[in-house]
Amino acid sequence: MSAPTLMIQGTASGVGKSILTAAFCRIFARQGMRVLPFKAQNMSNNAAVTAEGGEIGRAQALQARAAGVTPHVLMNPVLLKPMADQRSDVVLLGRSRPDLRELPWHERKTVLWSQVADSLDTLRSSADLVVIEGAGSPAETNLRASDIVNMAVAHHAVATVLLVADIDRGGAFAALYGTWALLEPNDRARIRGFILNRFRGDAGLLAPAPDDLERATGIPTLGVVPFVRHDLPDEDAFGMRSRNGGAIRVAAVRFPHIANFDDLDPIAREPASSVHWTQDAGAIHNAHAIVLPGTRNSVADLQWLWESGLAAVIRARAAAGIPVVGLCGGYQMLGTTIRDPNQIEGGGSCAGLGLLDGETELMAVKHTRAVTALATRLPFLSDQPMRLSGYEIHHGETTTDRHTCMTVEDKPIGSCKDNVWGAYLHGIFDNDAFRAAWLGSLGGAASALRWTEHIDRELDRLADAVCGSVDLHRICSLIWPAR
User: Fold this and answer.
1) Is 405 a residue of the active site?
2) pLDDT digit string, tens, across residues 186-245
3) Integer Cα distance of 461 and 448 in angstroms
4) 25 annotated active-site
5) By CB count within 10 A, which of 24, 34, 175, 214 is most buried?
6) pTM for this prediction
7) Contacts of 41 (CB under 8 A, 6+ apart)
């Protein structure tokens, strides 16, 4: 028997669908249910790697954690990773599919829908409840014919749909009504409740707007969720934010095609440090450390780094002894050159920053795997090697020599030279002892922060806030009407 489904759709991107989906996953999982998250198609360069080595959206990995289950590619069968303004890598069931990249948008449904439907059906066959996240808005009439993520999924799953608006931005009631009004009658019938998200203040002041909206649409407002500040990873660069706090200033370069920027979240949460996402030379010049994060287009972003003048600033600061770190694509940029002979990211080559000796070539085969790495020879570590958990997502093969500082199964994945180091290991700062050692080398005191435990506490705090602000009894009656 197929499990029932609860679907969180939104009036726009960025209204909080991903976080609310995680909250409902945790709420129902705490009731002893086997809850599985699902998003048919995600567009994000913030990706995670499953135990089987497949890529899914970072948001779905977080939702799986909230549900207390292992992430799987079925939870996000289609992942689009933007590489340029009109070009995205298409990841299907965890694997990059270059053949689909060139397929026109409106023709993709014929190829992808069966994979989406089969993935959802498989999840429903082994769950008590599947919590589904939509994408953008279901009222984009130009995308209706090619839809594989919003109302097409809702109808296939016979889902109870809650439509979410971000009231912190203003115009939430108009957004809810406008979205409802633009939908076809059969689509409207799937929406069973409205949620106002990120509200600051006294919810009683909203009257009579919720009642007016219900009279106009027949749909009740089932929750007013407060504005919850949290340390959970953002789904995409839209939500990126600098964190001011400690005296140790870490400048993180905000690349045009930035990816996996949540690698810096643990550093941002440390009391001793502040993380400033920037494209400003002044912020980089005044930092105690510089981080080049991942990117989905390392050649283009390296060229941008030179053209913007930031490359020269970073090289000068490195020469002055300021620590410089490169992660994945940022690690490739620290070397002498990046070549793309297979046109993985559009072709061409670009000179690197020359702060490390390695050369990188982008290969057709993409490395996606969860790993345990061995860190050695880094100046801020003791002589004893340190084991680190994380994951790899990269096309690049980077040559290293005597400067190797990190390996996986004896294969080099990182190198170090004086005050500059880099590695292919995403999630590196999730490792508490490593993070404390690096911050200590910058003059920051180690804290008692345990990152994985902290994320679980944040998920619980989020679930408590949502549970206390929605009509959960009524939502349950919509999901399970026969109870």
Assistant:
1) no
2) 999 999 999 999 999 888 889 999 999 999 999 999 999 999 988 888 765 555 666 667
3) 19
4) no
5) 24
6) 0.92
7) 76, 77, 78, 79, 80, 112, 116, 135, 148, 149
